[in-house]
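dumping this here before i forget
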Amino acid sequence: MPIVQISRIQHRRGLKQDLPQLAAGELGWVVDEQRLYIGNGTVADGAPAVGNTEIMTAGTGTFTAALSVVYEGYKGASTPIVTGASGDITRTLQERLDDYVSVKSFGAKGDDSSADVGAIQRAIDELYRDTDKDDTRARRILFFPAGTYRINTSLTIPPFAHLVGEGPDKTIIRNSGNNAVAVTEDDEGNTFGSIGSSSATTPNQIQVEGITFKNTVAYGGVSIDNATNVYFNNCKFHGTYATTTNSDTSTSKGVTVRATTALPCKNVTFNQCQFTGFCRLVDFSYDVLHAKFTNCDFAIGYYGALIGAEMDGSTSGLVNGPRDVQFVNSSWSDISQQAILVAPATGANAGTGPRNILSSHNFYASTVGNNHEGVGSILEVPVIQYDNDECGSTHDFFERSDLRRDDGSSELNIAPEVQGIARYSNRIKQVTLEDNKSAATSTTLEFAGGSSNLGKSIVLHYKIERASTVRVGTFTISMSTNGITHNDDFQESNGDAGVTLTAVIGREDSTSSDKSVIVKYATTSTGSDATMDVESTTIV
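structure:
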């Protein structure tokens, strides 16, 4: 019979305490701790150091450490940061990873080639809607890594949602359906018209950061419906409108709010957000209380912010209109019509309609309110138009005021910066009043008059310094169909400043309906020019 020889390879094995220096490439198995080592070899062989290197197994300490996390803080500090009542706490890797949830864990691709709507909605629902609504542990951040997430219907955002991307134009949710990119919902999945049914929790405490909401058709960006305490930070709302479009499509709205009389929207904030490519960059007609846009950029639209245009005074949610809507420290450019238009409350009772719509410290470029045709266009419209009361503009900068043509053309349109029922004030401006001007001489203080100049008053609070003489006064201009009147009320110290102020009707367009008001001066001969610091307030 044949002889069968059985061979086997044996490696060093034994207790950990008995592990010797292994030869280069030699294996050693530690029986008591179930750990495996291999010899490094000598330095002469090229090893960085003489010794044994542990090979990771289920029993190795490094493997266990890889599945747990201990917060160590800054290791270079003399007193390291510690957590927990008795120092650093060891947590499993699973626990640590669950602190922050990615949509990619639910199947979203973000590659601009997949339909991600199902995966994203599943992630949102599982984190914020399908969980125990009273268990705050479920309300963690849903992270969208950089990429383009393609959808074809509106995402619904429930209460307590906190969505975070990596920044505008980095994390993009792109919708190709005939609907908004996202709308709010209650915790039972009810959307506008049914929100709050059966005692459902209405949309509230919603935060969205670092995401672009892009629509590839003429529909909306985000609709905030029956929601309270909504905060968007560093987001972008991007549509299809271009300056060549130059017409209004009511479905193309960057951001809108909708409400019912029983459930108005409240406390909506946009900070460092961009609005571009919608016919109506912002459209607020429904009852909303306390909305604020801070440090935002509005560019490329037919209207900037259209306020109250659809309210009728009777339909639920369209009774009172928006109240306390503020635009602060923001920029506006490439807008065909008004940057802010507060429309009348059609059919509303007295005392209703948009109220306290405020613009403060904003920059309005010369490309606003001129039908996309440039400064001096006969088709200029007011930059801001308030057709309801209790509104105002404070320390806004209107670029087209400084860039209007100065050639005396009869076709120059003097559309006012602010028109309607409002008060607006400008920053202090300094002008030079030259010595020995016996005839009335124009200053650089010019104010757009508006149609027929009806019911407009301008108040100039000023200080004139000439040599050692100081004058402080108030120069008031009143406008009517009969022209203008003015009054100068002042006090002087250390003599007579020798300055006389007047106001006249200036340039007008070919229809003589839009005019300007120019402040003029005359001076005595003293050998000294005068400087005048002016802060103007206009009631329109």
